[in-house]
Automatic annotation (TrEMBL), chain A:
Keywords: Gas vesicle. Belongs to the gas vesicle GvpF/GvpL family. Coiled coil: none annotated. Transmembrane segments: none annotated. The keyword Ion transport does not apply. This is GvpL/GvpF family gas vesicle protein. Pfam families: GvpL_GvpF. It comes from Actinocorallia aurantiaca. It is found in: Gas vesicle. It comes from the Bacteria.
TrEMBL record, chain B:
This is Gas vesicle protein A. It comes from the Bacteria. It is found in: Gas vesicle shell. Residues 97-107, 133-147 have a biased composition (Basic and acidic residues). The gene is gvpA. The gas vesicle shell is 2 nm thick and consists of a single layer of this protein. It forms helical ribs nearly perpendicular to the long axis of the vesicle. It comes from Actinocorallia aurantiaca.
Amino acid sequence: MTGPEDGTDIANPVCYVYGVVLAEADFPGGLKGTGGGEVFLVEEGDVAAAVSEFLPSGPLGTRDDLLAHEGVVAAIAERTTVLPLRFGAVVTTVEAVAEELLAPHHDWFVSVLEDLKGRHEFVVTGTYVEETVLREVLEEQPEIRRLQRTTRDLPEAAAYYDRIRLGELIVQALEAKREVDTETLVEALSPHALAVAPREPKDEDTAADVAFFVDDEVRPRFEQEVDELGERWDGRIRLRLLGPLAPYDFVPQPPEEA
Amino acid sequence: MTVSPQRGAGSPVQRSSGGGLADVVDLILDKGLVIDAFVRVSLVGIELITIDARIVVASVDTYLRFAEATNRLDLYDKGGKGLPDLVQGMSGGGAPKEVEGESRGELDEGGGTGALDRGDDEAEEEPFEEEVREPSRRRPSHEERER
């Protein structure tokens, strides 16, 4: 067991912060947080922070810690507007949360939360169906076809550098496809979104990975568009729609320190 | 944390909402407000074991994997292997040979967002398991693996 790095007495519970909501928010009860404590609200004026207490007993970041954090934010986001904090936000006491987090930034939190009201983040990811897309690449690029033919009947060691070259060309071809397909996705969906945030592709199989900030009222049309694209790409790109989520990709810049 | 086909059952789009999903892990680690921007004095510096979910970068191993994949595709054309074999083969192809689970984890992580035919039910837990194996490579934790 290791205590917090700053040597805080580990006998005292500390305060884990999940996010900030409006004090009037419809807040779900009975949530278990990171470290197992019950999640409750610390209020300050018109805003409140969702927190839970726990006894620090080592590093944070186990599967359970992450799941708990995610679960709490997701449950809150389902009911109300929440400004999510990044994983691992820990403050000494409940009083400090009110005095240092909420009070000095009270008006900023209120205005930001009002802006985010009735809006959610959705993440659309596309994954290539490898077989389909590799066939496309082979059809489209004579050089890749040629290399594939020269390498396939040779022993692995003999064609080592050709195989690397072949794979490299394929990866480049997939990058070009990703660019085109991401663009197609963004063009189709951005008319129904307030903001768009492309994300780093997770790997070569990724066809697109884009976050959209969507007004609740427009959500049905947005989802319909995702479905239509999914049908169009069926067998080539598997689309996945994540959300509604807290606006992780659309949190505003923190205010300048007063 | 529900994974459900909410609209027209015919839609090929897989839907999931909320927490408990691998896809959201990178959100909570990289996105959201940073507490340090707001709280300075009463901050508790707790060590974080962070997971870098985006480990796969273009590398020789990756190139070889794709080269291998096209050759398997060729076998498939001849009727030698079905797609499951193709997929199976790719998970081993080109990856470091030390541990089988490792290379598999890498491929699946690659397809992390439900790449290989995966039922809705599984999608809730499975991808998460696989990504969490990444850190356990560095910090072995049997507890995590066994779950």
